[in-house]
Amino acid sequence: xxxxxxxxxxxxxxxxxxxxxxxxxxxxxxxxxxxxxxxxxxxxxxxxxxxxxxxxxxxxxxxxxxxxxxxxxxxxxxxxxxxxxxxxxxxxxxxxxxxxxxxxxxxxxxxxxxxxxxxxxxxxxxxxxxxxxxxxxxxxxxxxxxxxxxxxxxxxxxxxxxxxxxxxxxxxxxxxxxxxxxxxxxxxxxxxxxxxxxxxxxxxxxxxxxxxxxxxxxxxxxxxxxxxxxxxxxxxxxxxxxxxxxxxxxxxxxxx
Length: 256
What we know:
The chain has 256 residues and is of the alpha+beta class. 66% of the residues lie in helices and 10% in strands. It has helices at residues 2-18, 22-25, 31-47, 50-77, 79-83, 109-125, 140-155, 157-169, 176-185, 190-196, 200-215, 237-255; strands at residues 90-92, 98-104, 128-134, 223-226, 229-232. Helix 1 packs across helix 4 and helix 7 packs antiparallel against helix 8. The radius of gyration is 26 Å and the shape is elongated. 26% of the residues are buried. Residues 1-8 and 15-20 have low confidence and may be disordered.
């Protein structure tokens, strides 16, 4: 609350000082003058408390706009890592005109909630490529599931698709026992898998995903990147369609 009042007070005191002649503004205030300004600010805020809300709203909007601008710069700077990393799992139309990126965790209930709507939207559109970024932030079991999925990807995209879908369709928490059981049901050699999950390339890819997420200020799952938008939320099919359409319109404007 102190910080909020201070922000508003600064704004009001700035207006008070701005009303002084230019020559006066260049001279440091005496202690008596400083107290007088403080009194003016306090009296004004007591008479017009709504100014606090207005100042806070303006501050929030400024911070939101700055965060969005920073994210856009980072999206542009790291676009190849985001949209075109060859080691990432990919689906949909690989030659599509739009790429949707998802940062996800297999123990994230919202990721599971978004799974069907995402792929239904992609299928209905027909021209969208999906890039999956394994981003296991919900503990060691999530990390193990991501490692298993990436081992499957190293074997083939089709094997990854099977494991990925089975993990996403699993209800309840994926622990070590469930992870290996499901992987075995999808045709993976569990004994070999247990050796491969600690591989250096798997570790490198996960570190890369975490670094990328930090640079984009992504702290939760699921987080989608659609065009130049970063959305941390479980999206329904209609919302995804709207975002895809908006991304295409934005790209057409920039291209034109």
